[in-house]
Description:
It contains 4 helices and 8 strands, in the order E-E-E-E-H-E-H-E-E-H-E-H. The chain is of the alpha+beta class. It has one domain (12-125). The longest helix has 8 residues, at 108-115. It is globular.
Amino acid sequence: MWEIETIPDNDLLYKRIHENHIRDGEVMPVTFKEQGEDDNKGMSTDWAKYSRPRETKLRARDPKKNGVVSFDTEDLRDLNLEVVHAPIKDPPKIEDNRAHTHVQGIDTEKRVKLLDLIKWEIKPKVLVNL
Length: 130
């Protein structure tokens, strides 16, 4: 098991965005949701210390239908969201991921605010031609 680390404010987190969560060229707020239960609940992201945008994209079930955005950790904390390093080791059905991180405390209002914080690292095909 990897050590749980504190993620500095100036680090980036990467999140996959599936093309189904893009309408009329805009990301829909529903993509920013927490999944899981208890200590494992949060919006799944990857810490840039241990991942790159392409690696994050390739972790998707269908990478061709995903893009990747980044968030500045400090901006997330400024919204009173918690950023928790949550590496995955020896899980059933998915690969190990030292970069895995949870963003916790997301509600409807914060989903909309998250739209202003994203920066595209890899645009999905539905946006490339716009």
